[in-house]
């Protein structure tokens, strides 16, 4: 009977851990390249429940016309609706579609650079990468996204730990 009890506790803990993982934050690596610009970085995103994701943070580096710069994602204050960039040039919505082509819609992601410019990346069509500074560069890019998997949440790890402790405690009693 004790073996059944400990096995039940372990199964419940594993199921709870798996259920919380389904809604957990995911990490993506991205790269882009075009005739005069290239870059890479990471994105942290929450699932929307329909196979799409809302990006909640991101950073990286880019090289434009031979000059390197850092990228920091600007968050959309409007949820999944699009927002205007601070300089008013771009619309963006921070949505990813990892299983679709293109990987983003016509709004895409907006980054600020350390030199104060804005970079809008929104897919792989013509003009999909736009770099705004004294002159705007619009070019077709190759954009790739690699899902690095789920970022474990502290609650999920704690739940797994409790399940293992319960399993060990019941096992020692028998």
Automatic annotation (TrEMBL):
Residues 1-24 form the signal peptide. Keywords: Signal. This is PEP-CTERM sorting domain-containing protein. The keyword Signal applies. It holds the Pfam family PEP-CTERM. The keyword Transmembrane helix does not apply. Residues 151-173 form the Ice-binding protein C-terminal domain. InterPro entries: Ice-binding_C. Coiled coil: none annotated. It comes from Sapientia aquatica.
């Amino acid at each position: 009977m004790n073996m059944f009890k400990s096995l039940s506790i372990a199964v419940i803990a594993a199921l709870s851990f798996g259920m919380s993982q389904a809604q957990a934050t995911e990490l993506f690596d991205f790269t882009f390249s075009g005739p005069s610009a290239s870059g890479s970085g990471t994105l942290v995103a929450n699932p929307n429940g329909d196979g799409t994701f809302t990006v909640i943070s991101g950073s990286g580096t880019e090289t434009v016309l031979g000059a390197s710069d850092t990228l920091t994602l600007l968050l959309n204050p409007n949820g999944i609706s699009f927002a205007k960039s601070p300089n008013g040039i771009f619309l963006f919505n921070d949505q990813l579609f990892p299983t679709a082509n293109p990987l983003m819609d016509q709004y895409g992601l907006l980054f600020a650079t350390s030199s104060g410019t804005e970079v809008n990346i929104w897919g792989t069509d013509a003009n999909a990468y736009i770099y705004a500074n004294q002159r705007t560069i619009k070019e077709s890019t190759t954009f790739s996204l690699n899902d690095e998997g789920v970022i474990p949440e502290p609650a999920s790890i704690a739940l797994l730990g409790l399940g293992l402790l319960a399993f060990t405690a019941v096992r020692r009693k028998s």
